[in-house]
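protien #1 (seq + structre)
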Amino acid sequence: MGGEKDQAKGRVKQAAGDLTDDDDLKREGEADETAGKVKDKVDSAKEKADDAIDSAKDKLT
């Protein structure tokens, strides 16, 4: 969920940077959006690892 929030924040900053011709704000928005995407990927990988661990535990019991 946090990743989606960061991505949205990044898109808003990029749009504001475009409107105001502020390159720093655009870059900050791009960084926020990328960070959000990374957070989503990490969360997804963590969930898959947790599922694999649970599956392995179930097979052992």
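ok now protien #2
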Amino acid sequence: MQLGFITWLEAAGLTRGFETARMYCGTKPDLHIAGVFAVTSLELG
């Protein structure tokens, strides 16, 4: 988790509305998570 970024957002007045979970099909990919800065959303419905 990128705690520094979360602290920065909270200092800007933002609050957490919800949390998400990472889900994988098969084995977990070998990613450098500290370098991931975007939120990806897949909505089914």
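The longest helix spans residues 3-11.
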